[in-house]
Specification:
3 copies of one chain form a homotrimer.
Chain A lengths: L10 E6 L7 H12 L4 E6 L7 H11 L8 E5 L10 E5 L4 E5 L5 H6 L4 E4 L15 H14 L10 E2 L11 E3 L2 E9 L5 E6 H8 L4 E5 L2 E4 L13 E5 L4 E6 L4 H4 L11 E6 L1
Parallel strand pairs in A: 1-2, 1-3, 3-5
Antiparallel strand pairs in A: 4-5, 4-6, 6-7, 8-9, 9-10, 9-15, 10-14, 11-12, 11-15, 13-14
Helix pairs in contact in A: 1-4
């Protein structure tokens, strides 16, 4: 990874729950550019619900593989800032990930058995004064910037073997039935579930199905939104290869009706026909 | 246009209805930078109402001429993704426009009679696997990136002569009266109409006027907001050279009162005094 | 400052009340890149409440020092656009600030006694046609772009000594009590006050305290959010070195209960124990 900075362009992505009204994202960018004026910073999202580690981990997992190799992904959803929680760096074959050790990186760690997790302890890569409330500015941004200059990751602290795991809701198979849940709702009101393409194919084995979420019942899996008439519900495999409930030219979340905690977590049942 | 990439800096703008919470915009940027690490990507807006082609076409028309010549404008408001609708590239003297063929580019096509529209058919400029639901990632972003490297547009597919038109509401002249409508409301609550400076001047011929929208009646056209006292309604020619109803230090949309479908489409009548 | 452009990378920050739906921010970026294609533009925020000069000045003051020396900070919160208000440029030892003369820069001017304020009068650095409603596009963006090319600030107009001041609410000391107010609420619902670390230390002299805001009463100052149990209120010195009322894993603004004008301006009293 020492060649990242040498290539001339180093990409740093940012994924936070800071929103776009406060100055926090701008401050992180200022800190990065002060260390590496040639860094190319790309926003993934700053609209993660405050402190919502699971949501951030879904968004990260969906987005990270589309960036050039060598990209430094920087994620700051950090409700435990200033506490004993560690700051970590995950090194995989293709990417670097800088984040608090709060489970955020767990889904990626689990899928990269050769990845190494480093506990960020070398304060020379931080800002001189570390606040108790804004490690995005004082630790994560400067570490990402130093990495983008080609700094060796393994000089930044010791390797650890006990990163904090994250409990991720998994779908349950019961005979000819698969039970999952809504894990993300996008701007279009599409209900994205934790049931992926592979699990669906294993269940259906080429047969048809009925999908139920709340009072909505849908027969069969469509290929794209326009496969059903305008205003009609459908089920498809979305762009992240997960099963998704949608309404053509409409909004599936609204169709589901008002729910106290939104539609996140809503039970989704697929029955093989 | 083959010299775009050769100049050293290639600008790609993005205009979508993806919002800023989901990872979709970040993913498009990752795909572009994977193909052209030196591309300079600029956001126009990602807050187009979902699927609102007309709104996107107004925003695009207002913004595109302010960018450097050679800029590649990439617009993804694409309710028909995955259906038979074509992906197109508009080549004008100064710019390239990449978008779905759903009417979005129609206002620009109409005003650039020498422009050429290309049906994007050459799959070698797409991502290897094309999803049915996210052509922003799989077709439009990679095409824009290849164009930014200097790729010849006319190698990307055949020229077509039948791009999909868009019905744009036009103001109606009736003697000494002009009747238009509100087509866009900005963050300040300014009501931007489809009546442009030229049409207004032709109507008034130097005389005064009365403008009516809902229950608001305003006499005369002001030069700027501060021409009337704080909290007062006014009419002016806004920065896009269209007639605009505003409230100094206030919000004209709120002044109009609650309306079922917002103030978009509200009738605006100008009478020559 | 003539060496800004010479360094190869010139940073321009943008802070506006334009929001991210309208094309205004994109247009400003297009104008800048048309003049200096190598400018690196960084957003601080575009979500300032419309016309809210005081809020913009707080955000600016918090963010600007984190950017590399030579950065050109461009602020467009401009309710008086098109009126007699001047356009100004503040030159400090480390930064340039381009803004309307409406008080926005006052907190920075007051703290930089060696800074010079220039009235931007040289129209050759503006766009050829100046609208009456969008000086961000027509004056501030092109001035920032020319500065980023290394243009001498003092060629842009005469030095003035009477920039418009801004009334900033100051905390009041009464014996062993300090009375301030909430001046900013961030995305996490943290209530940021106008009481800074120094004023607090002078009051407390190492002793304990009780902080009151609305019906919330908190004993003692914590170091970070996680110092109290989940859902509990706390007081701490935030990342901008101001006293802040927060709720661990929660939202202090919501805790304060509904208030007609939000919690901005809410009285905060600290009593030395």
């Amino acid at each position: 990874m020492g060649s990242v900075g040498a290539r001339g362009t180093a990409f740093i992505t940012l994924l936070t729950d800071f929103g776009l009204t406060d100055p926090y994202v701008g401050i992180m960018k200022g800190v990065i550019l002060g260390i590496n004026p040639k860094a190319c910073i790309v926003d993934i999202s700053h609209q993660i619900d405050p402190g919502h580690i699971l949501q951030a981990s879904f968004i990260l997992k969906e987005a990270f593989p589309y960036f050039p190799k060598g990209t430094i992904h920087t994620i700051v959803v950090d409700p435990g800032v200033g506490s004993e929680r560690r700051a970590i760096l995950l090194v995989t074959e293709d990417y670097l990930f800088v984040a608090p050790d709060n489970g955020l990186l767990w889904p990626i760690i689990s899928e990269h058995k050769n990845g190494k997790v480093i506990h960020l302890t070398e304060a020379r890569f931080f800002r001189p004064c570390i606040s108790d409330t804004f490690h995005g500015r004082d630790i994560f941004a400067p570490v990402a910037a130093h990495l983008s200059l080609g700094q060796e990751p393994f000089d930044m602290g010791p390797i650890i073997n006990d990163p904090l795991p994250l409990r991720i809701p998994e779908p349950k198979r019961r005979g000819h039935q698969l039970e999952g849940q809504v894990i993300r709702i996008d701007r279009f009101g599409n209900l994205i579930t934790n049931i992926d393409k592979k699990a669906l194919e294993e269940l259906l084995q080429g047969r048809d199905c009925i999908v139920q979420v709340g009072s909505i019942q849908i027969k069969g899996v469509s290929r794209t939104y326009a496969d059903v008439s305008s205003g009609k519900e459908l089920v498809l495999i979305g762009s992240s290869e997960h099963l998704e409930i949608a309404v053509n030219q409409g909004n599936a979340r609204e169709r589901l009706g008002p729910r106290p905690s939104g539609a996140i977590g809503a039970r989704v049942v697929i029955k093989r026909a």
